[in-house]
Amino acid sequence: MLNRKRRERHQASDDTSLIARGTVIRGDLCFRGALHLDGRVEGTIVAEGEDAMFTLSEHGQVDGEIRVPHAILNGHVTGDVWVTTRLELSAQARIDGNLRYHTLEMAAGAQINGSISREGDGGEATAPHELPAPAEAEEAVSA
After folding, report:
1. Direct distance between the N- and C-terminal alpha carbons of the chain, in angstroms, rounded to an integer
2. Which of 31, 89, 99, 139 has its CA 20 to 30 A from that of 9?
3. For the segment 36-92, what is each residue's pLDDT rounded down to a tens digit?
4. Using only C-alpha atoms, what is the Rg of the chain?
């Protein structure tokens, strides 16, 4: 079953771009199909198309915003991440920024340092859940 899911992810597009380890791109990047990043991007990454897939390896870094429908992250992102369909955070993933997603799979060890909100089916963010304030009677401590 797991192998079938992995095959379905890669069948979305035959066009895959690779940014190799040691490569630094300064500026915004727009792509179609699939993008695999082993290097570093200093700018915004935007995908065109509902089947676009962004993969960030454990060596990859993004200093900027990411806006994609599908993503697998295992590297370091400094900036906000917006994933409209499905996000997979692997064990070495680290996001220093806010995260908005529709469906999330997160491995033990992944880190998010920022706010996290789930996008509703209509593209609207769901309301954050807040705990009720403690009752005044519970706050008072008897002597």
Report:
1. 61
2. 99
3. 999 999 999 999 999 999 999 999 999 999 999 999 999 999 999 999 999 999 999
4. 18
Listed residue (69, 63, 130, 143) closest to 97, CA to CA: 63
Q: Report the percent of the chain where pLDDT is more than 70.
A: 74
Query: Could you give the angle at the alpha carbon of 113 between the alpha carbons of 69 and 27, nearest 5°?
Result: 55
Q: For position 1, what pLDDT does the model report? A: 45
CA atoms in the 13 A half-sphere facing the CB of 78: 6
Token output for 72: 């697998």
Q: Residue with structure tokens 């993503």?
A: 71
3 state SS of 79: coil
* Dist. CA 85–CA 70, nearest whole Å: 6
Measured CA to CA, the distance from residue 16 to residue 4 in angstroms comes to 20
The tokens describing 110, both together, are 């992944």
How many other CB atoms are there within 10 angstroms of residue 116's CB atom? 14
